[in-house]
Structures are given as C-alpha cells and as structure tokens.
Amino acid sequence: MKTWIVVxxxxxxxxxxxxxxxxxxVQFVTKLANPRGRLKAQDINxxxxxxxxxxxxxxxxxxxxxxxPTEHVAQEFAKQVSDFLYDSSQQHLFEELxxxxxxxxxxxxxxxxxxxVRQCIVQEIAKDLVSAATVTDLKDRLWxxxxxxxxxx
Length: 153
Prior knowledge:
Layout: E1 3-8, E2 12-18, E3 26-33, H1 41-44, H2 69-90, E4 96-101, H3 103-112, H4 115-118, E5 121-125, H5 135-142, H6 147-150
Parallel strand pairs: 1-4, 4-5
Antiparallel strand pairs: 1-2, 2-3
Helix pairs in contact: 2-3
C-alpha cells in the first residue's frame, strides 16, 4: 500500500511516497511551486486597476466580503494541489495520504478536496514543514520513533 506524504504551504507542495512496510524507502515524488505565494498584496495587485465598492445595495451594509489578494493566490494554489491529488488518486498512485500543512492552508485544502481523496487521509498535521530540507529531516521532525523514522533512505 502506497502512502503519500503531502507537505504544503501557500508557496509550495512537496510530495513523498512511503510503502507500508518497515523497510520501505521514503522517496521524493514531486514538487508543486506557487511563486506568487511569496508576494505581498501590493505586489500581486501592482498591475491591476483599483477596486470600487458601491455605496448602496439592498444587501445590508453595501459591502461584500472580498478576499485579500494573498488569500486569493493561496486559494488558487490550494485548488491546484487539490486537483493534482484528485488526478493522482484516479491513477491509483496512492492509497493513503498524510497531509502536513500550515494551519490556514490545511483548512483551505481540506475544503477543496474531493470526497474520494478525503477518504484516503489517514493523518493530518497542522504545521508548516515545507522547509524541511530532506526526507531524513522530515522523518526526524514528525516520526521520531515510528516506522517512517526507521525506514531506510
């Protein structure tokens, strides 16, 4: 049984694979990048015209909740990751998922995942560990005495 470990934040996603036996390697699968995730709101909108909110509507305050540009970029990337995981599940590339994401991004991603993909999730960890440079680093931080920790690289 293949388990994918998805380590993600608003800037990038790293995907690793681990078999279900003690001697299985943890291997890097792929990386999805979102360079716009590092930008500040003013840099994202630098080439767009200003926004206008009408003063009068029939909907109470006259203002609708508008996501910030950085939230919009994060939402787009969460959709990209969600679509990638769905496509991968359709190709039977994994049976189980471990999601490790910064807390806010985990919520965004969880809301976009297809029911079929959500059913594959065996563990969620609300931490930003994308900067974990290596497989060993990741294993040391998350599973200090588990099967993943003792797996060979």
